[in-house]
């Protein structure tokens, strides 16, 4: 079928549906919901059998839904309506929540139901639930609804909100006052819930050390205590605030004084010298915040680096590299690089770069720090390395995974193995060595030019991934550890290490790693310091979430086609 994805932005859910529908052999094109006229044009050009709307902030125009069936994905249970579905589910402490696929009609979220699925809630941020449970249920529900539509005989259910079992209801947009933290009264769980409900957006209004901020990325600490509301410690980018019954780490913040120019950053960076008298606190066992840690089991060392949004600053890369070096010195045989549960990595930290006095210098510092790390992984000859992708990855983050000997990925995640969308960035991370080595030169060229999101099935076919595994992030980690332990105990391991060393030596003789890096960095230097400001403009827009004024042609197939037909 021909399916138009109508969406406010090509966000993680829209990307996941794009991938899944194409895998099911549908012809898919994307249009951003900019205004009614643009939507009408897109429908006229593409003539879709059906419109699927994964992420909308406004109603679909009547001129469209009257003529074409439009399926709207609502991140709520049947009967739930309103723009803050997940925010309320978190604040209300719902144990079970859901996704409903309904047909657009005159009233928003009130149309007939094509499919609805439920899932168990987790204590997690809104964006983590959205990227995992919601995305998973939405994919299944949309595929079922599309199949039902294609069969032709299915009659969607009108929403009957009078039944005794219907829990969903119309909820207003959540206001800041609904999630305000009262540091003198709220217990740790409540503080976490409030921050989770607004994370990634819009955050929770608060004041830290006298500075008005929005806060995000909350983690309970089971040991620290202090005067409620006081900032009692810091650790790398995060700060610790005491509650009435413990303490909460806050990883990210954004200044509130000037909404136009501020953006989300590590909280300690936002607070700057206000933290001068706040002590750096060492990591302790138990619940606390840390963004790099190591564990060991059965001859396997596992490194975790759940960097917020998968973004890696130069300092984070240096710390991760040091941790990797430590892991190599242990008496183990396999090292697993786990990334974080929501993201493996999204490459350079564009926010920290944007905030620097010289974004060009900070970009240079960051890309070199990532390259150093990737170099160490590629040249590891004493261990087998496994990149275990629990969550999505983009740009340099994808190529960093390819540095490992084996790449394992969780089914359902989305990869964006390309840089060009960020203002024609050339990219480094030894991608010119790593990508063709796995995918071949022709495919490498096609992948980087196409600039499309890719599912793990396609990544597997291209050779970017060696094995796909099912399950939640926790189940995936366990399966990976079992495989890694088996590998560590495999008598053939020395042989595998020998083969690896031979291959590396042959590759090095053909073209040394240092040459790949030099060639890539020459191009990157032009991106950072050259006359063309595209990368700096794209980064600034990306980090400030400036809406796109038109749909990129890479995903708007109907517009590409129309352009070709008109000879443009
Ligand atoms: N640096 C800083 N923040 C980043 C980031 C990066 N490299 N990559 C993603 N983010 C942030 C986004 O700003 C967004 O922030 P929010 O918490 O305010 O919502 C959040 O992560 C999610 O990103 P989003 O773009 O909404 O996710 P997505 O799943 O829709 O798209 C990507 C995934 C990878 C296509 C997209 O995030 C991207 O292009 N990232 C930049 C990759 C890049 O160019 N890296 C630098 C070169 S190595």
Distance between the termini: 27 Å
Main sheet, how many strands, which sense, barrel? 6 strands, mixed
- According to DSSP, the number of beta strands is 22
Beta-strand percent range: 15-25%
| Corresponding CATH superfamily of the largest domain | 2-enoyl-CoA Hydratase, Chain A, domain 1
Q: Supply Rg.
A: 24 Å
Unreliable runs: none
Percent helix, as a range, is 25-40%
Give the C-level CATH assignment of the largest domain: Alpha Beta
Structure report:
The longest helix is centred in the first third of the chain and has 26 residues, at 126-151. The protein contains 20 helices and 22 strands. Strands 2-1-3-4-5-6 form a 6-stranded mixed β-sheet, sandwiched between helices. It is 39% helix and 21% strand. By secondary structure, the protein is an alpha/beta fold. The mean pLDDT is 96. It binds coenzyme A. Coenzyme A is lined by residues 11-12, 200-201, 264, 309-311, 346-351, 392, 394-396, 416, 419, 421-422, 425, 543.
Care to give the gist of this entry?
This protein is of the alpha/beta class.
